[in-house]
Amino acid sequence: MPATSELMYSPFSKAVFDDPYPVYRRLRNEAPVYRDPEQRWWVLSRFEDVTSALRDWETYSSKLGPAPENPDDDGRKYSVISMDPPRHDRIRGVLKGFFTPRAVAAMEGALQATVDRHLGRLEAGTTVDAMEAFAFPVPTDVIGDLLGVPHADREQLRVWWEAFLTRNEGEVAMPPAAIEANRKISTYIGELIEQRRATPGDDLISIVLQATFHDPEVNADRALTPHEVLMFCNLLSAAGSETTQKLISNGLVAMHDHPDQWQRIVNDPSLIPTAVNEALRYDTPSHWVARTLTRRVRLHGVTMEAGDWVLLLLGSANRDERRYEDPDRFVLDRPRGTDVYFGWGIHICLGQWLARREAQMVFEHIARRFPRYTIGSHERTLTATVRGYTRVEMTLQ
């Protein structure tokens, strides 16, 4: 038998990004605590290890941010996803109630109108790029409406976010185009904030500007600082669209590749919420997050030191055969418990219920009008942390 190739993992490898699951399986089986060859970070890949780390924020700190190629300083760049309690809880609490299942249910009419506007113009017998036709514009319009972004500016903002997340093969450092895109995003969102400061509305930016919370550091109620407002709104504009775009495209491809499961959905649309959960597990949009250790940790016979970066592979945890039976198949009837496709613990995705509902509505429309759709060529662009398609050829039938 030929010797097994050396186990190599990098989140900035295009080959791994395109098909990470064989490498993830080897990591789980051969090196559950994997050391980057250049000593830059550790990697945890098993479900139990990832969930334990996500829960233990006191050991696995978020203060340096979710991505080692662009470290943060207690939320200066990434807002609440780069904070630990108690500051995290106070800032996140400003909008926590806005994204509950009840709050999302109240948006039902507006969400349906957005989905119908983009998918209603599609015609059977045609072939479209699903990303351009609806997977990009539906989430972009939903978060654009919530933030009050003018329609004419939304596509440009989406393009900037895609450029901000795009990485070069094998390079850890952010490329110049990503840095420039980040500057343009902050400038644009900053101008929107100033407009709302002068003329408040009922959008999320206005709500964030007007919100107050008790800050024990000054023992008084206070509003967010201008920088906190900017970073929070930057985060909302990205997280509200990027993950959902990837969920929709990944789910469409996965269901096409499992026609028996798709036919069950077509026959019984009540299965669609379950299908969204399985799409999130099967091909997770957010593949990894980073944490830094506040103390020495010994795991699986390996010692990680305080101050070390640790990558938590959500995409691998969701395919762990120790947690899921036959994990490499898309199966609707899986028993549900703890799943880490939206993270877990204090940093679980604030907008998860909104993302789920958008995807459900898109899949409902496809199942009703184009139950025999087929997928042709599809492409990904190497990005940081999130993984999905930038082009999906879809024939509607």
TrEMBL record:
Pathway the protein acts in = Steroid metabolism; cholesterol degradation
Q: Which GO terms describe its molecular function?
A: heme binding; iron ion binding; monooxygenase activity; oxidoreductase activity, acting on paired donors, with incorporation or reduction of molecular oxygen
| Cofactors required | heme
Task: List keywords of the entry alphabetically.
Answer: Cholesterol metabolism, Heme, Iron, Lipid degradation, Lipid metabolism, Metal-binding, Monooxygenase, Oxidoreductase, Steroid metabolism, Sterol metabolism
Q: Does this UniProt record's set of keywords contain Cytoplasm?
A: no
Do you know which SUPFAM superfamilies this protein is assigned to? Cytochrome P450
Task: Name it.
Answer: Steroid C26-monooxygenase
Biological process (GO) annotations held by this record are: cholesterol metabolic process; lipid catabolic process
Protein family according to the UniProt entry:
Belongs to the cytochrome P450 family.
> Do you know which Gene3D superfamilies this protein is assigned to?
Cytochrome P450
Q: Which InterPro entries match?
A: Cyt_P450, Cyt_P450_B, Cyt_P450_CS, Cyt_P450_sf
